[in-house]
Amino acid sequence: MSLEQLTTELTSHFNRDDYETCAKLLTPIRIELIKNGLLVPSPDYRLNSNDMVITRSILEIGALVSINTHNMKEFSNYITLLRPFYILPQGTIPESSNRNKLLSLYLLLLLTQGDLALFHIELEKFQNFGKSVDELEGDEFLSIPIKFEKWIIDGDFNKVYEALSSKHKFPCKEFNLFETDLLNSIRLNIAENLESAYTSLPLENLKMLLFVETSKEATEFIDSFGWTSVNGVVYFNKKQNELEEEITDEKQIIKNALVYAKEMESII
């Protein structure tokens, strides 16, 4: 089957939300793109602009198929392949209407992975597109990960939870697919802070803090962290070596304070 026939079939299945078939078609299509030297835009732009637009569209379909089939590694690979098309000099090919959507989804993926450093690096790249901070925050797609990141940094997890619960507010359905992973990432962050700050908490308080609605979900989370639940109270069991390290650190702090006090006394 020719590249043109494969592309037509891919588009047809994608428009019907038949992502499984699309995933199967994408492998031979990418091979054909490589054979024809289309997968990466030529540095001197000798490729036909129409060919570049078609290739970019295929890769964008691949990225969306990967998200809808929950293959985030493949999604990241497609974003990598799309970057050269997104940074072509203005006027080389028409700007893609899917660019901000896909890059926003990638930013959300980074948030689910807790990679805030790379998140900021990716966001700064939009300066290459001539976008101001106000324009980024006003974009219907980019504004979502930007808001989420700010709320996470500020510890305002309630706003993230409320936004994720309001699925109808998202500009495209793919944003909803990050709900579980993003919530789990936030729960992990909260859980680690709770372990550091408390030795125990009432179960109902823990469920509220972790945005967990059912006792079954709470039990699964408690078990995954190795905590103990007794009579409605959750105990954050720290490992013995962690406790010993804390005691050693405290002793060292006291020792350093005493040495410092003696030195000050000798000076006086």
From TrEMBL:
GO terms for cellular component: cytosol; nucleus; proteasome regulatory particle, lid subcomplex. GO terms for biological process: proteasome-mediated ubiquitin-dependent protein catabolic process. Keywords: Proteasome. InterPro entries: 26S_Psome_Rpn12, CSN8_PSD8_EIF3K, PCI_dom. The keyword Cell division does not apply. It holds the Pfam family CSN8_PSD8_EIF3K. Gene3D superfamilies: 1.25.40.990. Residues 74-252 form the PCI domain. PROSITE patterns: PCI. Belongs to the proteasome subunit S14 family. This is DEKNAAC103641. It comes from Brettanomyces naardenensis (Yeast).
